[in-house]
Amino acid sequence: MSLVPTGDLVGRAAAERGCVAAFNVITLEHAEGIVTGAEAAGRPVILQISENAVRYHGGRLAPLALAASSMAGSAAVEVALHLDHVTDTGLLHQAADAGFSSVMFDAGALSHADNLAATASAARWAHGAGLWIEAELGYVGGKPDSPASAHADGVRTDPAEASAYVADTGVDALAVAVGSSHAMTERSASLDHALIARLREAVPVPLVLHGSSGVPDTDLRAAVLAGMAKINIGTALNVALTRTVREVLDGKPALTDPRKYLGPAREAVAVTVREMLAVLAP
After folding, report:
1. Which residue among 8, 84, 88, 168 is the active-site one?
2. Is residue 191 predicted with pLDDT exceeding 90?
3. CA–CA distance from 4 to each of 30, 102, 174, 207 (Å)?
4. What are the boundaries of each domain within the chain?
5. Fewer CB near the last or first residue (10 Å), C or N of the chain?
6. d(CA 104, CA 167)
7. H helices present in the chain, as ranges
8. What single-letter DSSP state applies at residue 282?
């Protein structure tokens, strides 16, 4: 297989009333583990690199993007490359040259009017550069600029507002707030499946679920059946990776060769990806 456009994977999933999983990449071990897990499951995946991950790598996008692209190009399944949660237009404008086929532009911290204007501008630029673009409306919990709870009054995405937002911005997919939270380490989120179905009817582009690591298996399956076409997963991989590193080093405190603990950690990421893809399989 080869690197494929994100829009192709998401569009196909939406047309089939299924989903494609998007996994966050922070290190090379993440990318390797994600692709290995996807190959084991025989399912396509999206490799996502967030603005926060780029910041961790000193603000340099190209090294991690090139590594992810290389993994995608040699994978036995279809793999897409997506730039996630971008707030910096300078970073946005690097996306196409760095090999990304898509970007999620995040103006959620702005007022509604400013969000609308900034996202419409980003969408015009992205489409001019040949990029598929995702945005977010509503407040998915777990971010510093979001309300304290994903269940607080007024934080969830309104279907009529979402329909108008998509029409006014021209985005290709919409992440919506339906009860999930970013960075959850326990799978206890409770989704509003009736709202997902209403959003699916109202919004003419594919829907995206952020914060999926905290959602139980049964809720994830129900969310896909209700209309979610792209499922974002990040924290679950970090939990598996970090837990494995701790276990190895606790058992061998004198160990200094990083291959001895990062290798098992990479395998733990692959196992988690394979298991999540099995949950999301039609």
Report:
1. 84
2. no
3. 19, 11, 20, 20
4. 6-280
5. C
6. 17
7. 6-15, 28-41, 51-56, 62-73, 89-92, 112-128, 159-169, 193-202, 217-226, 235-251, 258-280
8. -
The two tokens of residue 34 are 């994600």
Closest CA to 61 of 25, 35, 33, 30: 25
CB count in 10 Å sphere of residue 143: 18
Q: Is the domain defined by 6-280 classed in CATH 3.40.50.2300?
A: no
- Whether the CB-CB separation of 49 and 91 falls below 8 Å is answered with no
Helix, strand and coil in the chain, % to nearest 5:
50, 15, 35
Predicted model pTM: 0.92
How big is the chain, counted in residues? Answer: 282
Look up tokens 């777990």; give the residue: 142
Burial class (CB in 10 A: 0-12, 13-18, 19+), 193: middle
79 and 35 Cβ atoms separated by less than 8 Å: yes
Report which residue type is found at 157.
T
Token pair for 178: 């339906």
Query: Is there a contact between 192 and 168 (Cβ–Cβ < 8 Å)?
Result: no
Residue 219 falls in the annotated catalytic set: no
